[in-house]
Amino acid sequence: MDELLAVALGMEKESADRYADLARRMRTAKQWELAKVFDRLVREETGHIDMVTRWSRQVAHKPPEILQPEAMPHDVFDEEGIGLVSPELVDAYRSLATAVRNEERAFAFWSYVAAHGASPEIRKAAEQMAREELEHAKTLRRERRKAFFKDRRSAIQKPYDLSGLEMEVCTRLEEYAGMQEITDAKNKCRDLAVEARRLSLDLASDPLEAPSPVRSLPPRSLDALCEWLADYYIDAGEHLLSQAARDRAQALATIAVTRLAIVRNLATR
Q1: How many CA atoms lie less than 13 Å away from 47 in the CB half-sphere?
Q2: Where does residue 185 rank: exposed (0-12), middle (13-18), buried (19+ CB within 10 A)?
Q3: Which residues contact 45 (CB under 8 A, 6 or more apart)?
Q4: Is the separation of the CB atoms in 64 and 8 below 8 Å?
Q5: Whole-model pTM above 0.70?
Q6: Phi, psi at 77, each rounded to 5°
């Protein structure tokens, strides 16, 4: 039972920490209402931490053990790579989809505790926790559905100017080149800028076939914009209607992914 309580404490603490991070990301993206949703989840998960601590004092007469990260079960809270994505690209739908799946994992965990708890009191409390996690998932599903349709409406109303975005990348890279002190880095930035200008002109004279994939609005920073374009071209390479358009998008994706890797490598120097 001690180990179970320690896992429960670690799980709830990790969930609270991750929701706090998602709340910060939503505020960065100016998604104020969603930030409030995640803030509320932080408060509720913190309440769960207090409850687990009370259980441990009742059963073991001591606070629950704090497990080291390596001792925690894998995938207790799976952020699905969000931490590796530029903050500007962590849109509402993706954040909410991740949260929904993790609440479902938490529901399964507490359902197990409710069935195998050491005492009737713990089993009853675990049932309540499971119900709360299920309510969390329902709330998050509603928010996810709203985010999905909001993104679709935005995409329909505002088609993407890929030529303009590539030209913006070109401009940013030229500015970035001027900031570089190492000749090799300066030359790489300039080469990428020339390439982005060529892509911009190509897309202006021969736009990528519609319909385009539904995505959040493009960001402004160089790193995030390069990542957004890479993702866009990858999606287009899978979803555009004609094979010729898909082949062209896949070629653009190869260029964009290579560019993103170079930009990120330069940023770490």
Answers
A1: 11
A2: middle
A3: 12, 13, 15, 16, 19
A4: yes
A5: no
A6: -130, 110
- Which structure tokens are listed for 55? 């259980």
- Residue identified by tokens 């920073």 is 221
Question: Residues 252, 213: contact at Cβ < 8 Å?
Answer: no
- Nearest one of 173, 155, 161, 147 to 226, comparing CA atoms: 173
Query: How many whole angstroms separate alpha carbon 214 and alpha carbon 198?
Result: 25
Return d(Cα 169, Cα 111) in angstroms, integer: 50
Over residues 15-55, the pLDDT tens digits come to: 888 889 888 888 887 878 778 888 988 988 888 888 888 87
Residues 6 or more apart whose CB falls under 8 angstroms from that of 245 comprise: 208, 209, 236
Dist CA 139 CA 30 (whole Å): 20
| 3-state SS record for the chain | CHHHHHHHHHHHHHHHHHHHHHHHHHHHCCCHHHHHHHHHHHHHHHHHHHHHHHHHHHHCCCCCCCCCHHHCCCCCCCCCCHHHCCHHHCCHHHHHHHHHHHHHHHHHHHHHHHHHCCCHHHHHHHHHHHHHHHHHHHHHHHHHHHHHHHHHHHHHHCCCCHHHHHHHHHHHHHHHHHHCCCHHHHHHHHHHHHHHHHHHHHHHHCCCCCCCCCCCCCCCCHHHHHHHHHHHHHHHHHHCCCHHHHHHHHHHHHHHHHHHHHHHHHHCC
The token pair at 133 is 């996690």
| pLDDT tens string 165-187 | 999 999 999 998 888 888 888 99
